[in-house]
């Protein structure tokens, strides 16, 4: 400690101040260094302590100038901070070097602390079409596609925190990009606990893989096209013939109303046959849609047995000339976690392979058995067992290798089983095979049980409740015949207006027309159902919740994402009239 007069003379120094006196070259009774006199004056003038760091020769001191106003003097307390400054300088230098290294890294890098981004390298910001400064302070989860946020949070902090995973982010251009994220690494960044992640843009790779999956699935469907066409043509021929005969009979009734009861009874029978035939066509279209839809990445709770039934119907023409089909579905096996489209692709491939392992003819002597059960490890096991030729041991280890096939040239891509293996593994399951030459094969797929069930947007058909009031319903569909059909169906219970353009519907709503329920086709020219939804939020926001989307199922990726994000119900065409009435009734006041 030193004591200094107002004129800058050193009045007193305790023994501990000797190193400081030596370093600055001053003595008691003499003037302190000129630089210090300003600090002394500032302390006396303000009446407050003045803190400064000064360098004496090669040593740095932290000095506190404490005023003693009634004596006109200042006490100086000093502390050697040379090592501390060196450590700080070394830390700053290492941080600069660290930033320089990761700024030049070929992968995207982020550092987050307290849930916010505190560092972003240029590569990561380029994924989103912005600058690193634009992202600082942002919650990284806010950049993730909404449907992925819960999963990403779990994979960062849950049991999967040590595994690389993929996530989708939305760039400034609104386009999603698929990033592969490394496990989080703990570190200290600028004095704070933080987490570092590496990201790699795998958008193009993911698109190529998706195209490969779809191509393989379509190849399977194409191979079965002749059988599917046969299955459609039979009921279609019956439906057309019965409708033509009904139309002829109606014309006869108009000209000659004699024997009305008998002829009406014949009309009713023919229409019933036509309805039964079209129901079969509807089922085939549903099965085809399972294999052509573009939502294979969406994981949901899948009803296992209906999905297997669709698969077996698709493969039936391939099976029936070779073997008897036996379905052995276990009790309590209901739903698995996964994607209906991808699982359909897996089991179609396995069933067709099983059929092709059996020569045509003598179907009564061969069997393909599809069974389900809860396995010992609490997963759901689905087995496809055939009585075919079997697989040699030397070949078995190569079955799931890409481009490996035992089929003749031109009869297989060699990708089917490798894709099946990747799909099942990606869903958290596994696929096993047992086989003996001459005694057939068993392919066993094990999948996790669904932990949740995706809520249905439509009330159960049996829960229709009739309302005492008539509702006002607006139908928007560019297929005029569909709009007219819905109008005829509902007009006894509701006031229905049908238009063929979303633009016309918006014009009516701007003019003040109001409706309880709006049935809107999703994919239309000029203005889509998605654009109508956005426009209605401006024109009449109170009507947005009353929209029920209807669709033929030809989704684009944007349409699929849209339906995931909005709470509105959606009905697929052909429309089930009971489900439609139930949806409308549920939206009307009691």
Question: How are the secondary structure elements laid out?
Answer:
Blueprint: E1 2-5, E2 10-13, H1 18-24, H2 34-46, E3 50-56, E4 59-68, E5 73-80, H3 82-103, E6 108-113, E7 116-120, H4 122-128, H5 132-135, H6 149-157, E8 165-170, E9 176-181, E10 185-189, E11 192-201, H7 203-223, H8 225-255, H9 260-292, E12 300-303, H10 304-319, E13 324-328, E14 335-338, H11 340-356, E15 367-374, E16 380-386, H12 393-396, H13 416-426, E17 430-436, E18 440-447, E19 472-476, H14 480-490, E20 495-499, H15 502-510, E21 517-521, H16 529-539, E22 547-551, H17 557-565, E23 569-572, H18 577-586
Parallel strand pairs: 13-15, 19-20, 19-21, 21-22, 22-23
Antiparallel strand pairs: 1-2, 1-5, 3-4, 4-5, 6-7, 6-11, 8-9, 9-11, 10-11, 12-14, 15-16, 16-18, 17-18
End-to-end distance: 87 Å
Helix proportion range: 40-55%
Helix count from the secondary structure assignment: 18
Please tell me the overall pLDDT: 80
Q: What general form does the structure show?
A: elongated
- Beta-strand proportion: 15-25%
Task: Name some characteristics of this structure.
alpha+beta, Beta-Lactamase, five-stranded antiparallel β-sheet, Heat Shock Protein 90, 590 residues, six-stranded antiparallel β-sheet, 18 helices
How is this structure best described in words?
By secondary structure, this protein is α+β, with helices and mostly antiparallel strands. It folds into 4 domains: about 1-80, Beta-Lactamase, CATH 3.30.450; about 85-200, PAS domain (Beta-Lactamase); about 285-445, Histidine kinase-like ATPase, C-terminal domain (Heat Shock Protein 90), CATH 3.30.565.10; about 460-585, Response regulator (Rossmann fold, 3-Layer(aba) Sandwich). It contains 18 helices and 23 strands. Strands 6, 7, 8, 9, 10 and 11 form a 6-stranded antiparallel sheet that branches. A 5-stranded antiparallel sheet has the order 2-1-5-4-3, with helices on both faces. The protein has a 5-stranded mixed sheet with strand order 13-15-16-18-17, with helices on one face. It is elongated. It starts with a strand and ends with a helix. Residues about 410-415 and about 450-465 have low confidence and may be disordered.
């Amino acid at each position: 400690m030193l004591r200094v007069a107002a004129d800058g003379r050193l009045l007193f120094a305790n023994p501990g101040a000797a190193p400081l006196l030596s370093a600055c070259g001053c003595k008691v009774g003499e003037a302190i260094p000129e630089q210090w006199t300003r600090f002394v004056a500032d302390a006396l003038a303000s009446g407050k302590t003045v803190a400064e760091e000064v360098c004496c020769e090669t040593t740095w001191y932290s000095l506190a100038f404490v005023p003693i106003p009634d004596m006109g003097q200042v006490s100086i307390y000093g502390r050697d901070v040379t090592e501390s400054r060196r450590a700080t300088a070394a830390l700053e230098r290492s941080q600069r070097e660290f930033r320089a290294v990761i700024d030049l890294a070929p992968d995207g890098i982020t550092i987050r602390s307290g849930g916010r981004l505190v560092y972003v390298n240029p590569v990561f910001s380029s994924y989103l079409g912005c600058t690193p400064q634009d992202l600082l302070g942002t919650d990284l989860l806010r950049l993730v596609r909404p449907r992925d946020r819960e999963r990403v949070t779990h994979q960062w902090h849950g049991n999967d925190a040590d595994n690389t995973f993929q996530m989708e982010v939305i760039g400034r251009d609104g386009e999603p990009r698929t990033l592969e994220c490394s496990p989080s690494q703990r570190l200290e960044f600028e004095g704070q606990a933080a987490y570092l992640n590496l990201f790699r843009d795998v958008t193009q790779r993911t698109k190529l893989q998706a195209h490969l999956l779809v191509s393989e699935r379509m190849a399977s469907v194409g191979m079965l096209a002749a059988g599917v066409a046969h299955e459609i043509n039979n009921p279609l021929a019956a439906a057309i013939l019965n409708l033509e005969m009904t139309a002829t009979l109606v014309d006869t009734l108009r000209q000659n109303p004699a024997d009305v009861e008998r002829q009406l009874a014949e009309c009713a029978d023919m229409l019933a046959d036509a309805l039964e035939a079209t129901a079969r066509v509807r089922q085939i279209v549903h099965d085809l849609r399972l294999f052509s839809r573009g939502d294979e990445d969406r994981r949901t709770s899948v009803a296992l047995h209906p999905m297997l039934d669709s698969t077996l119907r698709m493969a039936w023409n391939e099976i029936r000339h070779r073997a008897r089909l036996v379905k052995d579905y276990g009790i309590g096996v209901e739903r698995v976690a996964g994607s209906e489209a991808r699982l359909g692709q897996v089991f179609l491939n396995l069933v067709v392979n099983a059929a092709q392992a059996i020569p045509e003819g003598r179907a009564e002597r061969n069997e393909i058995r599809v069974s389900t059960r809860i396995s010992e490890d609490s997963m759901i096991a689905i087995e496809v067992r055939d009585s075919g030729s079997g697989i040699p041991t030397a070949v078995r280890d190569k079955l799931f290798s890409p481009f490996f096939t035992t089929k003749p040239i031109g009869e297989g891509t060699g990708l089917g089983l490798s894709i099946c293996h990747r799909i099942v593994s990606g869903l958290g399951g596994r696929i096993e095979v047992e086989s003996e030459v001459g005694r057939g094969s068993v392919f066993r797929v094990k999948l996790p049980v669904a932990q949740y069930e995706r809520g249905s947007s439509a009330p159960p058909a049996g829960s229709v409740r009739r309302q005492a009031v008539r509702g006002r319903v607006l139908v928007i569909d560019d297929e005029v015949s569909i709009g007219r059909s819905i109008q005829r169906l509902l007009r006894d219970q509701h006031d229905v207006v049908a238009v063929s353009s979303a633009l016309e519907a918006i014009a009516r709503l701007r003019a003040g027309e109001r409706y309880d329920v709006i049935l809107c086709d999703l994919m239309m020219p000029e203005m889509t159902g998605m654009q109508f939804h956005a426009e209605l939020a401006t024109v009449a926001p109170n009507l947005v919740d009353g929209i029920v989307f209807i669709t033929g199922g030809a989704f684009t990726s944007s349409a699929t994402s849209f339906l995931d994000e909005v709470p509105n119900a959606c009905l697929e065409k052909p429309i089930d009239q009971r489900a439609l009435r139930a949806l409308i009734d549920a939206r009307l006041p009691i």
